[in-house]
Amino acid sequence: MTLVSQLLIVTDAYSRARGLSQSRVATLLFNDGKKLALLRAGGDLVTGSYERALAWLSDNWPDDTPWPHEVRRPQPRASAPEIGEGGSEGRSGEGASGHEAKVAAGTATVTANDAGGFA
After folding, report:
1. Sequence-distant (≥ 6) Cβ neighbours of residue 19 within 8 angstroms
2. pTM of the model
């Protein structure tokens, strides 16, 4: 089974468990609502993006939902960002893509910690 197939199995289960659309899950993971649809259509992604996405899913996995048995689950990190009410990202708005938006004193700063990102 390919890594993309494994990721799609996990995102499908997460989407059902949280009641979120695939587009919303793709936005949380990649800051791109079309990314999961592109992967289903044969697209690809870099290993780092796969690892960050799977780690984020593991960190934010619902306690009442079993992790898909076909996919090895990464160890959840201690300081995981959480999903807030209404399906929005939690803690500083950071998703698995590494993009973060902070608003303080009327200014906005957008950063990325992945390769090719922006500051």
Report:
1. 87
2. 0.67
